[in-house]
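S1.2 Input.
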Amino acid sequence: MSTLTKVLIVLQVFGVMALCVLVVSYVATADNYRQLYQQQQNRAISADQQRQATISEFEQYKATKEEQIANLNREITRRSTQVSALENQLASAQRQNAQLTDKVTTLTAQMELANNLASQQTELAKKAQDELSQIRAELEQTRARLAQVNDSLTEKLAVIDIQTKQIRSLAEEKAALQEKLEQTIRQFGKSVVPPVAPQPVAKTPTSPLPKDLNIRGTVTRVDHDNRLVEVSVGSAAGVREQMRLIVARGDRFICNLQVLAVEPDRAVGIIEMAQQPPQVGDEVTLGI
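S1.3 Output.
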């Protein structure tokens, strides 16, 4: 056997061995890829199932929330309707209360007049007594109606009672608030005049407030802590100290302002009889 033949045989042996190695490696790799593919497929199936469950849960949650929102909207509409109805009832009851109060005042005046006439002239005592009895009967009927109206207004006037108590407490706190009031007025740009000893002066009749005085402005600044309000009208429009102004929002009464300091184009007042907190932009007119 020649050397070339031996070399070829050796090369063939090595080639066969390399081929075996490649075949074994391919078989092993194919098994691994098949296992990985199966794992990835299982994961994909599981992820899809989880996605479907999540979508279903989200749809249920969305439907529940939409139903809750619809219920809340219906409840808000119902409450708004109730509030409007109560406001109308309150306004009607207040008008009735004012009418009945005027009638009671008129009847009371008539009673006093009848009593005076009865004391002056004995001859007219019987007639005056008859008229007085009739007036008293009408007064009792009016008072009974007024009592019914007041009973219906008890709950609606709770806020007014609270504000009345606040007004009474303000009178007791006036001395303590004076120093704080002066400091606050300085913040609005109004210089504080030092107090001077009062001197007796001859009293002169004060001129009545002109009925045709047209004072109209707006709220420009509100200090809720100190119950102070700055308005956009001043002495140039006829505003004076101690004057009362009315703050309104549309047709709704907000509060009264008692003017404490006045400048040509603005004024500062303290809040009185507040139905609601005043806001910047509210209308300001001359009070009674």
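S1.4 Remarks. The chain has four helices and six strands.
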